[in-house]
Amino acid sequence: MTAGPPHRSPFGPPPRRPPGPPRHGPPDRRPRRAPDAGSRRPARPTVHAGPPRNIRLLIEYEGTRYAGWQIQKSQRTVAGEILTAIDATLGGTDKLIGAGRTDQGVHAEGQVANFFTRATLPPAEIASRLNDLLPADINVLAAEEVPLSFHARHDATSRRYRYQIAQRRSAFFKRLIWWVRQPLHLDPMEEAARVLVGRHDFGSFADRSAAIAEPRVRVLAAGLRRGDFLVSFTIEADHFLPRMVRRIVGVLVQIGLGHLPPEAVGRFLSEIVDDPAQWTAPPSGLFLERVVYTPARSHP
Fold it and tell me: 238: closest CA among 264, 204, 202, 263?
């Protein structure tokens, strides 16, 4: 079978490109616009491995979206987010040791953690790389190299927590406060808070379903701070029991409402009872404010 004539487009042949000057070099291209200097990120240096190092982090976070600090299976946690960032930037680490195991919905202004790495990056660069990957509600405030023997939890001499009670509705701070709608009488609350100072058995204020190695806690300071619409309860101690601060706050609020006398705190410290559990304050108002170390344990 003989081939027929080639197929021709009904629209006619394509237009011929007009002749131009002979090309003696690469094709002519439009010049590319240089990127704005302010929009370019500096190149990240390669991570080199060296001897083991211990890096201490100072961290702040809003805990509303997290199931607490501690790693939990199938749960989003603060430590889990930071470990993911460490793995992506430095090649991973065995574990992240936190000074305070904050519960679900609890916040921190001064959480301390440490981890081991062989990365040779300066501490400031480590903090910068982690913040590039962390969500907006977790922020590394500082990083520093510390002795290999430093342990964020065991070496802490005390921790300070703050609980924020609002005396009016707020359009901005709902996730960071507990709004108590009824008026509070602060003088009896302050009287009761002073009883907490000293070494006491805080078993009545603890979640006794959790393992408690030492129920006796040495409270260094406890008191109220009055603001325009916030009442802040602060407490510093050598260690804390599960739910302890939130149940203390719940009892103080009951005293401020006139439902309990100030002497109730002394009774709960002298005998183990279950009463405070029913008044546990919500986690939204609680902050880990600060972790304290002796200077010799926090610097090389």
Answer: 202
pLDDT band at 46 (very low <50, low <70, confident <90, very high): low
Q: What is the DSSP letter of 296?
A: G
Query: Following CA atoms 270, 273, 277, 278 in sequence, which dihedral angle do they give, to the nearest 10 degrees?
Result: -120
Q: C-alpha distances in angstroms, 82 versus 96, 133, 140?
A: 8, 9, 9
Asked if 158 and 297 touch (Cβ cutoff 8 Å), the reply is no
Residue 208 pLDDT grade (very low, low, confident, very high; cuts 50, 70, 90): confident
Pairing of strands 230-237, 107-119: unpaired
> 236 and 259 in contact (C-beta within 8 Å)?
no
Integer Cα distance of 276 and 286 in angstroms: 17
As a dihedral over the C-alpha atoms of residue 105, residue 226, residue 201, residue 286, rounded to 10 degrees, the angle is 10
Task: Give catalytic residue positions.
Answer: 103
- Closest of 115, 225, 73 to residue 163, by C-alpha: 225
Residue appearing with tokens 């009545």:
204
Amino acid, single-letter form, for residue 81: E
* Bridge pairing between strands 158-166 and 49-61: unpaired
Please state the pTM of the whole predicted model: 0.82
